[in-house]
Amino acid sequence: MKTHKIAVIPGDGIGPEVINEGVKVLNKIASLDHTFQFEFTSFPWGCEYYARYGKMMDDDGIERLKEFEAIYLGAVGFPGVPDHISLWDLLLKIRKSFDQYVNIRPITLLKGAPCPLVNFNSEDINMLFIRENTEGEYAGAGDWLYRGKENEVVLQNSVFSRKGTERIIRYAFEVALKQGKTLTSISKGNALNYSMVFWDQLFEEVGKEYPSVKTYSYLVDAAAMLMIKDPKRFEVVVTSNLFGDILTDLGAAIAGGLGLAAGANINPERVYPSMFEPIHGSAPDIAGKQLSNPLAAIWSASQLLDHLGYEQYGKVILTAIEQLLIEKNVLTPDLGGSSSTSEVGDCIVELIASNMNVLQTQKN
Ligand code: NAD
Ligand code: IPM
Ligand code: MN
């Protein structure tokens, strides 16, 4: 039997609650398949760890994570530890150290999911955001001059390297080509007169190698407006680190909410482990009450299965999520229900078990 070694970092706030449900789902699928199993190793890193040991993760944490095939993470950040410390010393550190330069975030309105936009349904909202994930506005470079003085100046630099920009754009073209979809680049060349001019130039340059992919280019402000007014025009989307961060929360809002928004941080070369995590944060306002929606984390688990080569099971999870949304009996409060986090996870497990039973019967 094949064993997949997965590192689990539940993290802060609702992180542990939602990850618990994702692990349940992954174990269920493995147990029904019989040919593979998961070996989960949990790391207690996060803000509580920081309070106790003065650091977000162990000093050799990155080294230890290298031995895993993938990382499954809940959320990082909680009041009490400054966000820029907690995030830079754990989540962003992993994304960067493992060169997870592709952040894949599906903005797909599943059937049964609530949408605040009138006259749009699941056929109209089906985008795949491909966000640059290791540099750009998140380069972490800057300076603080004359601190505390009258002439204080703070610099936050963006870094767009040719290598970093070209590879994310190329990745997006490959996805669009494979899926037969259009590719939209979202940038801001009118105001950001170095970084985004460079981005636009590379988008055009790489595009020449993909003449069959139909492309569009929007300024980020207009793109935000169009995602609400006419979401159908976006299929595969490629954008920078910060724009991708902001637009995928916006996307989540029109596709069922943050409780349904999943993401994968991929190192395409597979030199390092990739990491799977919901888009949402630690939600301190509802943490520890079993009010959080685990579906985003469960959807991320389906991306993890895709990554390991079990696309058929990735689909089984999405089908179960959609069934749950359509039936509407077992949902968390953010989706208008009154079920708990673990009741939703249990229900997904049951749906998966009965769907896989049907698949098995059909095969025999
Ligand atoms: P958040 O995503 O944690 O919460 C925003 C709102 O959405 C809250 O009202 C919350 O209750 C709700 N929400 C989020 N996920 C939900 C879920 N699964 N089910 C039901 N409701 C959900 O964003 P925030 O409040 O701005 O950030 C809180 C902390 O999380 C901060 O420290 C922030 O830096 C961090 N954060 C971490 C990540 C990550 O680890 N990937 C992502 C975003 C924010
Ligand atoms: C996300 C989060 C992170 C980001 C934060 C917590 C650093 O918002 O994963 O969307 O900006 O990438
Ligand atoms: Mn975000």
From TrEMBL:
Residue ranges constituting the Isopropylmalate dehydrogenase-like domain according to the UniProt record: 5-348
Entry EC no(s): 1.1.1.83
Catalytic activity: (R)-malate + NAD(+) = pyruvate + CO2 + NADH
Keywords on record: Manganese, Metal-binding, NAD, Oxidoreductase
Classification via NCBIfam families: PRK03437.1 (NF002898), TTC (TIGR02089)
Recorded family membership: Belongs to the isocitrate and isopropylmalate dehydrogenases family.
Name the UniProt record assigns to this protein: D-malate dehydrogenase (decarboxylating)
Gene source species: Gottfriedia luciferensis
UniProt lineage: Bacteria, Bacillati, Bacillota, Bacilli, Bacillales
